Amino acid sequence: RICDYRCGQTSVGGARGAWEGRAPAHGGAARAGSLAGDGSSEGAAAAADAARRRARGVVLDAARAVRGVPGGFVSPRAREGRRSAEGCGPGGGDASAASVAAGAVLPLTGADLAAEASGGAGGGETKLEDVYPAGAEALFDATVPDPSETLGGKTDDIEPDAPNVIMHVVKQLMPGQDLTRVTIPSFYLESRSLLEKLADVMMHPQLIIDASAHDDPAERMLSVTRWFLSGWHYKTVGVKKPYNPVIGETFACAWTHEDGSRSQYFAEQVSHRPPVSAMFMENRRHNITANAQVWTQSRFKAPQTAVSIMAGGVRLRFTDRDEEYFITLPSFFAHGLLLGTLRMEIGGDATIVCEKTGHRADIKFKQKPMMSGEYNVVQGSISVGKAKLFDIAGKWDTQLDVIDRRAKKKSELLVDVRREPIAPKEVLPIDKQGPWESRRLWAGVTAALQKRPTVDWMAVDRLKGKIEDDQRTLPCHQEGAAFRPWKTKCFRLVPFSNPLTGETEEVWEMVHSRYTPYAAGEKENNVLWLSRMTADDRTGEAESIPGVDGAAAAADEGTAKSTVSEAGRTGAAAAGEATATASGGAGGASAAAPAATAA
């Protein structure tokens, strides 16, 4: 179980009791468990903290022994543990303030153990042949493209009659109110999850492929900027907001290109409080890898505006050039929330910076002034050092132009999103999706929202409320002895040096991200399999799909690192006894390795 990427938050065998503050099942950690279980005095609390640290060291030493790695990279999270009293995040969540004050070390995620065992961050050490079973590739053959009438938005719909929502909203709002804790009327719901909406940045995947091919770093930055600005024009009838993803929810899709390459997108809701969505995008053959996270911070701004701040950012890497572009995101503004015409605008600043080349794009999304002006205006520039290279101007929903200052050229077309072909997402049909994939999870709500000519809003509220109420019963939302931290499925926290602030922070990264140049014939990721087959604490594995033999076998036998199964739970007991022996020294760690490998 030490090797299992999804099982790391629950420690193995005897270490488990000391780690979680309960009596252990194995004698090797009996004393540590008794100390950890007694928090009646400061001395006992200190002893419990020390016991947890020793237990964690036992697990990590054995994990290193499995891979034959004597040491290696240890993330700040793995060194110090994660002490957090807010949210429902992995290794954190609703831990009581008392336990944090006492210095309790919360469990590591499976990714922490993976980083320790592999000897480094970056995910490149894992062999994907060991992750994806034979037959998993058949999932891509089972996908269907999105209907043509939905590409770039759905504008041929007739907006249903709205219920009286003004008093519903007024009763809950005050200036500065956190809108993530306000029930938004179902009338404003868009019939898709935020995890799917965030894939809109890939409406034109060919643009990012083109960007990776430029040899001139200035042209690469210009092309990255063009791709970034092309992903905001998705349209809906009226002002709509997507479903708030529940913790553990996932969404995956792909795009197949004419050159035979494949772009893939995968998103997971890794935290509920605060609400954090983690995303991964890859086109391996074109050496493109991106990890991103979005923390939606919504506020009510008097007199009648809702603001949604997209905190976080995108880390886009061209692996053959060893270049990383850090991209921040603008904010969304809903004006006329109570009176007048409700409208949505994008506003604020976005920045794209490549620390290696020194190039930087500064982009300003402008809101329409009150008395005059236009909607959806964008202005920006690209510079290197103090020298400005390009000026950009236009509208993000129609056309953007660029002026090359180096050649003193006149304005030229940068991108016209009305003429740029939109690539349909290739997604598994709902009946073939896993239980926590977005379209299947919200299928009932979506069907109720799309009824015409009249929507039963009470039915929508009831179906939506059932999903949200079920989430509140999870152990990561409980207090005291019932609390258990949430185990993320496919993302881990890694240190990141923010080029804009100069500070080191923790960011989410997909555990199988690779940052080495593409090698012909290498095994590629399969995000459809990850999204569909990765189980969590709420349920067993997804149902098998006829013809996808490897995926079904992996789920049944517990051999896939991304799947939690009863076979893994049984094997953990044997590994625990061997792991407890590892505390005796290097010889013990070596002895633990065969049992841990078998588990």
Helices and strands, with pairings:
Blueprint: H1 13-20, H2 30-36, H3 42-67, H4 76-80, H5 97-101, H6 110-118, H7 138-141, E1 144-145, E2 153-154, H8 166-170, E3 189-193, H9 194-197, H10 205-213, H11 217-229, E4 235-236, E5 241-243, E6 250-256, E7 262-271, E8 276-283, E9 288-301, E10 305-318, E11 323-327, E12 331-335, E13 343-354, E14 359-366, E15 377-384, E16 387-395, E17 399-404, E18 412-416, E19 426-427, H12 438-441, H13 443-449, H14 457-472, E20 491-497, E21 504-510, H15 527-533, H16 549-557, H17 566-581, H18 586-598
Parallel strand pairs: 2-4, 3-5
Antiparallel strand pairs: 1-19, 6-7, 7-8, 8-9, 9-10, 10-11, 10-12, 11-13, 12-13, 13-14, 14-15, 15-16, 16-17, 17-18, 20-21
Helix pairs in contact: 1-2, 1-3, 1-17, 2-3, 3-6, 3-18, 10-11, 13-14, 17-18
Could you walk me through the main structural features you see in this protein, from its secondary elements to its overall organization?
It contains 18 helices and 21 strands. Strands 6, 7, 8, 9, 10, 11, 12, 13, 14, 15, 16, 17 and 18 form a 13-stranded antiparallel beta sheet that branches. Strands 1-19 form a two-stranded antiparallel ribbon. Strands 2-4 form a two-stranded parallel ribbon. The protein is 28% helix and 24% strand. By secondary structure, it is α+β, with helices and mostly antiparallel strands.
